[in-house]
Amino acid sequence: xxxxxxxxxxxxxxxxxxxxxxxxxxxxxxxxxxxxxxxxxxxxxxxxxxxxxxxxxxxxxxxxxxxxxxxxxxxxxxxxxxxxxxxxxxxxxxxxxxxxxxxxxxxxxxxxxxxxxxxxxxxxxxxxxxxxxxxxxxxxxxxxxxxxxxxxxxxxxxxxxxxxxxxxxxxxxxxxxxxxxxxxxxxxxxxxxxxxxxxxxxxxxxxxxxxxxxx
Length: 215
Hints:
Blueprint: H1 3-18, H2 20-24, E1 26-28, H3 32-39, H4 48-56, E2 57-60, E3 87-88, H5 91-110, E4 124-130, E5 134-139, E6 147-151, E7 160-162, H6 165-177, E8 181-185, E9 194-198, H7 203-214
Antiparallel strand pairs: 1-2, 3-4, 4-5, 5-6, 6-7, 8-9
């Protein structure tokens, strides 16, 4: 196994030890041939890391509105910037989101929201999203591929930049290993809903771990 798969499996094991409901919400991975078939419509190549991610798991499953599954959207935690995590999309949904973003960009460019607005890069492929407002992009035609966490239209000022997918996953895995995450009630959810957030007393340590893998 590669380093990326090892780190993903570590997070997977941590999720199992924390809450079985997490594990039940992930789709099985795709074959490389299946990934090829789905992404063949894209105007750029995607990295080996990208393929490996979707061969590991194909996003979070839609279990239906009435199914109770707490702590579901963890793999790409956005705990530093939002009360809601960033949803790991299926590859099929990511393709659809990409085309939606492309159409949105066409309308935005007709009437730019501000003078210095930076045009969306068509090689930015969304792999995770919170209501298409906060998006995790992987960059096409680069291997390894940088990762950008972007808030809505503020493309010129990403919330965070990772050197590669493995650097991002390594940060998350080490935070799991060192106990930086805690289970707390979701103040915006139902009465018994819980979410995983970073311990506020350990925010500086998280930043150190980020710099360790992205300097």
